[in-house]
Protein 1
Amino acid sequence: MRLPELVRHSWTVAAKDLLVEFRSRTAILSAAVFVVLVLVVFNFGRDPTAVSNVDLAPSILWVTFTFAAILALNRAFQLELENQALDGLLLAPIDRSSIYLGKLIANLVFVASVELIGVPLLALFFNVRVLPYVGPLLGVIALATVGFVAVGTLFSAMTVRTRVAELLLPVLLLPFMIPPLSWAVLATGRLLAGRPLSEILGWLNMLAVYDIVFVALALLLFPATVNE
Amino acid sequence: MLRAEGLRHSFGGGAVRALDDISFTVRPGQTLAVFGPNGAGKTTLLKVLAGLIQPQRGRAEVAGGRRAIGWIGHQPQLYAPLTVRENLRFWASLYDVRPPTDLLTRLGLEEHLDRPVRALSRGLVQRVAIARALLHDPTVLLLDEPFTGLDRVAAEALSQLLAQHAGAGRAAVLVTHNVEEGTGLATDVAFMRAGRFVHFAPRAGRGAAQVSEDYRNAIA
Amino acid sequence: MRMLRAGRWITAIALVLLAGVYVRALAYTPVEQSQGLAQKIFYLHVPAAIWAEMAMVFVGLASVFYLFTKDPRLDRFAAASAEVGTVFCAIVLTTGPIWGKPIWGTWWTWDARLTLTLFLFLLYVGYLLLRGAVTDPAARARFAAVLGICGMCEVPFIHLSVYMFPTLHPMPIVLKPSAPSLPWSMLQTWLLSVGVFTLLYVGFVVQRYGLSYLQEQLEAVGEVGHA
């Protein structure tokens, strides 16, 4: 299938997913509440003399972002099963990759929305200076998010068909989240502590490689998860 | 328009033989009704024809590929939180067409276009599902127990559409366990049991009663 | 049946040889200078770690070939390799802390290599859980293959991280770009142990494969339901 059609169909699928999510809004609200909850808990849980805000910040950010990702991923294929819409998607003359890419884009937009709420809230409530590093910070966040959402979208296509879907997905995803997540947390920590950009370049590279490898792999493997 | 050759497919590691060496052709203008008890493999056959399942052996070909296929099953394949219009526009864009307004009028959907699907009655949902299947003017229709749960209005609309479809020289394969409903629309009739066709012939003017009896004789 | 018997023989031989490795490691191999007796766990820990990773690579390779050929034998082999890999990974995760307590003073640290071995273990567990959760054999084989391939591709990232992060964990002294920096007597014991673990891997996988095959035959007849 040619690239423009691939892009167009992917975007159609993504737009539909986002529209459905926008109508119900439950997931984004849960995620937003969770962000605030984490901020509150971490605030009361720390000893201000022993732990500085900047040390806690990466953990706070990434806990909330991962939660948002799991939330999105659990729902991603669920809505296709509800009325057997997945069959409809498979019947349509579109490339299977469009389904995957559409879901991936929708999931990324969802997680990005949570990230765009989380970072300013963190800066605000925890008094962490974010603005000087906002470029590289967004870069780290974007790269890491693509990494685990790409794998997660692939896995959710499989787990949605099992009975323990919502339990199984995080378990399967955990080992695949940890590399990008650990690199991201370390890089975020260094960034917010004001370290020079050169120190985190290594992690940025690894995140980029991880992304390329796993998005490509997911595109290759996705048809096997939906074709019988 | 549609051809199956030597289809074989089993599930459960070989335990259930859903398709056991099925071969047939459906030409333009023909509507094939496949009758059979539950578990005979009818839905599997349709899914193989549609390309949803890759058969373990054999081939199925539909002229025009996926673009030419319209599927009507008992699941509506609609998104409940979205409106009728949004649903139809989404599915239409996957086929690179726009929802044809005359189709919507024929199915009586015009005044419901902006209502969310989850707010519609069952009969209306079925009609939207039929519209969804016909959006892209398919030349081959595959129908899986399409009359199940249809209210009278929808059932009549469907019958009319099918008659028109056949009249326009297009092909259809209809699969059901209800012999009465399917016979009237068929030009050819097949009985399926345990993955095999035990009967495959033109309807040749037989009425529903006659076909029912033939069916009982063949399957019993 | 034949595979099972062959597998049992291989495993039995390997276990006897393993006892031999123990004897050789404890009695006939010199004690290492800085770590003392605790270092001897290296002869178990490292070969187990090598095979824990190799098993995942085999799962991945079998999965790739399965997706092309749909041959159920490859799926059976992948499942067997995954189970054996899980066991070896568990060995690494238990022998590690046994060494770590006297040397580092702690059972566990969130050090790169340990953490990533833990995650290899989680990869295996996830793979086995997925297999358990899918009832249709064809879907199970396909999904497991997808996960297996992803798992195999994850392993290099795990490996890579070891060289990226400063770590408490001893750096590789045998499997590294330059020549092994181990005295010959110790290297001999180590090589022997690697050979034994290879044999153990083969023995276990052959047995497990045989069991799978028998189970599938019983399921087909309807004697045994899928767990």
Note: Residues 25 and 189 of chain C are 6 Å apart (CA to CA).
Protein 2
Amino acid sequence: MAHAATTAHPPTNTGISNWKLGFWTFIGSECLFFGTLISTYMVYKGKAVTGPYPSELFDVLHTTMSTTILLFSSLAMVIALHAVQHGKKSRAILFLGLVILMGGGFLYLEGESYLKYIGYGLTITSSTFGSTYFVLTGTHKLHVIIGMIWMAILALQIGRGKITARNAETVEIAGLYWHFVDIIWIVIFTLVYLIQ
Amino acid sequence: MSSVGLETHTAHATSHGEETGLWSWITTVDHKRIAVMYFLTATFFFLVGGVEALLIRIQLLRPENSFITPEMYNQLFTMHGTTMIFLVAMPMAVAFFNFVVPLQIGARDVAFPRLNALSYWIFLFGGLYMNASFIFGAAPNASWTGYATLTSSTYSPGHNVDFWFIGLSILGIASLAGGVNFITTIVNMRAPGMKMMRMPLFTWMTFVTSFLLITAIPVIAVALVFLGFDRVFGTVFFDPTMGGDPVLWQHLFWIFGHPEVYILILPAFGVISDVIPTFSKKPLFGYPIVVYAGILIGFIGWGVWSHHMFTVGLGPIADSFFVAATMIIAIPTGVKIFNWIATMWGGSLRFTTAMLFSVGLVAVFTVGGLSGIMHAAAPIVLQQHDSYFVVAHFHYVIVGGAMMGLWAGLYYWFPKVTGRFLSETLGKWHFWTTMVGLNLTFFPMHFAGMFGMPRRIYTYSAELNVEIYNQLSTVGAFIFGLSALIMIYNIMKSARGGERAGANPWGAPHLEWSIPSPPHHYNFPEVPLVKSREPLWNASEREEILAVTMGEAKEEPVMPNPSYWPILLAASITLAWGLVMTGTWWIIALGALPVLFCVLMWAFEPAFPEGH
């Protein structure tokens, strides 16, 4: 993937590289994926026959904290991309590191919530609320983890001088992914936590 | 408008710089070779699914027959449906996407050649994985629709359904990657002058189908995730005792399942929209209308899914909406039928085998379309639901529509693939045995269904008075089976000893016919300039294009490197998914490691030769 931006393809019809267009297409597909997960959560909302129920568990303030951290990681991503595009190697690595750190912070806080909910008796098998909640948010967390691994590889590649301003698009595409994962979380945060 | 054939241009039988041998096929990223592998694999699965169908037909030859056990019968009809849809009709269409689309738009390959190879290998391994279930006597047995709660671990305790949901999830990855690949290819890689509204209809329908793929596959993927979690980890998505809703499965399945129907049929519509004009020596009648009708079918196809669920009891308002939407979607389909007829009207028709299959599609698909309109009315469906009438309907549209279209494509593009014609004599045998076989098989099913014969039941009682229809169907099925053997014999015979074909043996108008048959591995020595919808039917334009496309490349074009990571990644994905069956979370997590490793190796491998 890292080398795709430097191929000898003729210029594209749209002026957008194949990789970027293909990735946008993939994100479109991901929207349907999360759309189905979120719809299922909404369809089953309030229909769990056994507790614990959302109102007994959710701590909006706690989730707001993790959400804020994830949102700020997008800012770090933007700065990291800007740094790569302008050939500022160490700044790029620093901010990609920050992205990973904040992703980790988000996962830590969310993991805390998970443990708390499990302590209250909510598991994937306990009710439709448990099943839909954990599979939806768990899928999102899997996306965050994949994003963190991706960022780590990019930082490594920047360090080795394989990614420079010339092929910064590789970082841009990873950024598209990261922002998408963020936006999905905003939707989840709103529909799952804020509107109960 | 002149449509002189181009037989005078002799083909370059050998391409420069192309390796042969098994290893070169395993590591290939060439869209033309991937297409051939897709086609042969799908044909193999066609035989597998065909044998399953014949066993079903032998069992149904007589009432109260005991040729196969009810358990085996469940496995056979489930695997027949799953195989024919996911391992035959879809991949065979993808074979044509692969071979034809880059050539029709003037590209040297698809946008992501390695991803393309990955799609193929995942399809192969996913198909083998699902069929391996037969070895363990545990083939999927809950029908291709896999309705909850039949698929729950309570009611399907064995591994049968595990093979099904895991196999389908693996295959979904191939389709998703294919959709992304072809959208990008078609949007981004057209030759200069090849505007969207100059693209051949087959490329257009590939484009629409690709959008359906990337939007429909994620929905079934999530449904399969729910099912998998229910079965493996004990979640309660479809468990009514815990407030889960089995009807949710039906919604998710058909939100995918109905667009899937158009995923099957639109490629066939695309094929015959290219074939009919060629053999009528007339441009396609109402080109923009046919394009828009195809797009409209794609859109409305998203709003008709609940017509599969009229017996669920969704209420009069929901039912009325889906009745109306289903009737509306018949309109763009009907428009296409009339466009094809108008294209032939007054043309100088040549009834080659490709043309016969195309005309056959228009006729036979229309029969299925008419019973489809009957099914649009909810009250009628209450009578016909789960009866053989429905079986008759969807076989008419899928065999008489999708498969006939793909076989038209086979006869049409075979000379381009191999540089040789398929035998027209055998082709006509193939066509007429198909025509007789499929009508004899599926037409009597309408009656059997109306007299009350239910589908998916291993036998029927003599009092139902449907024996005669079943006997006709069984005879028809064997004739249809014979037609498949004729086709395969024809392919084997003609690939080596068929009559040699030139660059444009049919006098066709599109860009794929401007290059030698078989093409160079880089397709176009230089990328031509396109000025119209039928570039090769335009004398001056044809001369300009042929001057470019029939020449030698000034320097060898830079083509992507071969790679063995696609096959390894596909194998590791299949392994990882297969490990889900163990039900132990850490084994499943371990399965992700080889996938991650292959992804990394893939990412760090240069896609193109050094220096480019």
Note: Helices of chain A lie at 18-44, 54-57, 60-85, 89-119, 128-159, 169-194.
